[in-house]
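#struct-pred

JT: dropping the chains for the assembly here, can someone run the whole complex?
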Amino acid sequence: MALQGPHVKTRAIVLGVEPGADVIVYAKGSEILRESLQRNPAAREKIVTSETSGFERLLFQTALVRPVEWQPGAVGPVIRETEDAVRLCEHLRELDHERMVVLCLDEADRVTAIHEAGVGGQHAAALLPRDIARVPMLVGAEAIVLLHNHPSGDATPSPDDIILTKRMNAALEALGIHLVDHIVLAGSGEREYTSIRELYGGRLP
Amino acid sequence: MSPGPDVVVTAPMVEVLDESYGLRRNPLLEPYGGYAELLVRTGIVRPEGPAPPRVIVQDAAAVARVLRPLTGIARAEHRDLFVVMCISGRNQVLGIHVRPLSFHTAELSPRQVLQPAFALSASAIILAHTHEGPSEPEPVDIENTQRLKTACEAIGLPLLDHIIIGSDGPLGLAEHGVL
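RK: done, full complex below.
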């Protein structure tokens, strides 16, 4: 099966989500994502004012989008090991609720999009594969890395996390998207993390 | 022809129609002014104001009604069409992706089928395709439908029905126990 969708490859994208709201996305050179943003009622009002302030700046200002380590237009960082992915998601450790981050990678393992799938206090395991697959599908990702936080400070994956990983892996395979890993980050001042792939000896459960 | 109680018309329907899955108009439908316009012109839906119509489908009959213009387009284009109808959690038709049914379409991947649904944040999809002859499903139709149903379920975007629109009217595979 062809891995790449017909959609344009986007170089640098900053994505985020308002907790409990639909996906808020912005991708340079990707009309479809802009449209998708405009369809979000919560975001529409803010976009209207973006004409003067600049679309990207506005997204940062309104905290709809979290600036990561690079600016829109730049080439995303390469993910070679677990540590590289964790470094992009350190902000999750500060949260008092669980949040799932989807790192979208291109064929050279460069990050092309970061999507924060807000779960608004709920357990991350409540996410459907479609919530997670949406942005990777829109940007034509080859592979993704999932990361979520445990505000408790314990980086041990819960049984639900393992079930979620299995479910995601099966669903993403049908879409031709490779699940690289699912990483659990501890919060509450802890610096630990667990790679579920490593935990299972290099293979996903 | 007036809309039945299951076709509610209030606000816009987006069309996800071109090959790059952009939210633009499909050249295939351009001569008709887009699908929403076509639905209005044929009296299948009736807009309440100047805004483009919002289309809500509550049952198989309503879906069939919304898909009715496809027969004419297929005939005018001299080729069969493949359609992905994207549905919201409230049964609103968010968009209709139309493409010619080619030889390759026979091996549609879940990725191709679901891309429009992801673009529109749909909750469910309905597939349809036109047959020049009778609506009787071919073995490949049934095989494809079952394969896609499994994938759609895994992803959490249910495939509600696959409708074949032939010379003898629409036939839903859901009713035939395929789904």
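JT: nice. The mean pLDDT of chain A is 68. The helical segments of chain A are 31-38, 41-48, 50-53, 55-61, 82-87, 129-139, 159-174, 196-199.
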